[in-house]
Write a structure and sequence with these properties.
Alkaline Phosphatase, subunit A; 12 helices; globular; 8-stranded mixed sheet
Length: 425
């Protein structure tokens, strides 16, 4: 009887400790030291240099305030120096040199011609991440800001005029597009097996306003690609029609409206979010890694990246990465072991994942995730150097509670009991 009383008291105490959402793992094993997760979100802003974005003097106060809650990757680089080449690199691993028109955002040609050029190159290298995700039985969506209908784009015919959907307040608005919507920021339009398939395109290329409903209904897809319009992504300064100051100020306001609910969802549903920019300032042609032409270094400039979510360890890493690295990391997170284009030779993003996240070390060659690198010194701006307060999320009490409960029950801690979510069809 005494033993039962002690156990009852212990159970009651443990029951009061909240369980962390990451106590249950995704069912897929980890790849290359990258955690398997339920949701990956990529949010891309536009055309800002590293020094302008990540500093105490930055207009992006909210974004910089999030650094203490996640993993900061200062040495993250674009691969080219317009929009479309970078977006294609993020979604198929192809560099602009492989699709020459993307080096000029396909200006001067129509959407059909540009899409055919991109698709021909992507077909040779294995397609896009959209194809990989669907083949794995998972789901994806791009949430495009500035649209009110799904699958919005310019005239897609061989004889169409050069694409007029360029944002900057000048996009034709009679097809569900707002004046600041730009086709070149919606990379999945340029894969012909998506744009040629109206039902697939409508299901996957959604207005940004759908995101809040998908979160509320607990149907966020496995992979989300978010693109604000040319006012909200920082591209225009000022915004067209005097809607706002543009630049980082308007981008930061967009993030402040959007991220609290999204981040709360990702932390509760084993998700990760990558926030970065397509390219750096026009004068910055620095680069790294394998995302450039022929798998050599790119030249899109230093932009930095912030990673937030359930399995992320607070801190930073000095390792250099680029858009091909992001693609490979995303593939790994979703359990996809075949890597597209330049991602095949890229280095996955490691050293920023929490040891508390249940990685299957045996499946990745017996290696465990590296600890976050120490705060960088001598050149790169570290989170501490930004001079903002620590607003870290909840601690590890929930994980400890689950472990204590398992010990009391005399069984190992539970792992991997839920299947992958597939989100909206």
């Amino acid at each position: 009887m005494r033993t039962r009383a002690v156990l009852a008291a212990a159970f009651a105490a443990v029951a009061t400790i909240p369980l962390a959402p990451t106590a249950t793992a995704a069912t897929s094993p980890s790849l290359e030291g990258v955690p398997a997760v339920q949701h990956v979100v990529v949010l891309v802003l536009e055309n800002e240099s590293f020094a302008t974005t990540w500093s105490a003097a930055s207009p992006a106060k909210y974004l910089n305030g999030l650094v203490a809650q996640g993993a900061f990757v200062p040495n993250y680089y674009g691969t080219g120096h317009v929009s479309l080449d970078n977006y294609i690199a993020m979604t198929s691993g192809l560099a602009g040199a492989q699709i020459a028109p993307t080096y000029s955002d396909c200006l001067g040609i129509n959407l059909y011609t540009c899409s055919q050029d991109v698709s021909a190159a992507a077909t040779v290298s294995g397609g896009s991440i959209a194809d990989q995700i669907e083949s794995a039985g998972l789901s994806w969506r791009q949430y495009a800001d500035g649209t009110t209908q799904p699958c919005v784009h310019a005239d897609y015919s061989q004889t169409a005029s050069p694409d007029p959907f360029q944002g900057n307040g000048a996009t034709p608005t009679n097809t569900g597009a707002g004046p600041d919507y730009a086709d070149r920021h919606v990379p999945f339009l340029y894969y012909s097996n998506i744009i040629d398939d109206p039902s697939r395109c409508r299901a996957r290329l959604r207005p940004f306003t759908d995101l809040s409903g998908d979160l509320a209904a607990d149907r966020l897809p496995s992979y989300s690609f978010i693109t604000p319009d040319t006012c909200n992504d920082g591209h225009d300064a000022p915004c067209s029609g005097n809607k706002g100051p543009g630049g980082l100020s308007s981008a930061d306001a967009f993030l402040q409206r959007t991220l609290p609910t999204l981040l709360a969802y990702l932390r509760a549903h084993d998700g990760v979010m990558f926030i970065t920019f397509d390219e750096g300032g026009s004068s910055d042609t620095s680069g790294c890694c394998t995302g450039g032409p022929g798998g050599v270094s790119g030249f899109g400039g230093q932009v930095g990246m912030l990673v937030l979510g359930a399995p992320v360890a607070n801190g930073s890493t000095q390792t250099k990465y680029d858009h091909a690295s992001l693609l490979r990391t995303t593939e790994d997170m979703l359990g996809i072991s075949t890597h597209l284009g330049n991602a095949a030779s890229a280095t996955p993003i490691t050293g920023i994942w929490s040891a508390a996240h249940p990685l299957d070390a045996a499946s990745s060659g017996g290696s465990s995730p590296a600890s976050p690198s120490p705060t960088p010194s001598g050149g790169a701006v570290a989170p501490a150097a930004i001079g903002l307060p620590d607003t870290s999320g909840p601690g590890s009490a929930g994980v400890l509670g689950a472990a204590a409960l398992a010990l009391l029950l005399g069984v190992p801690a539970a792992r991997g009991l839920r299947r992958r979510r597939t989100g909206p069809a």
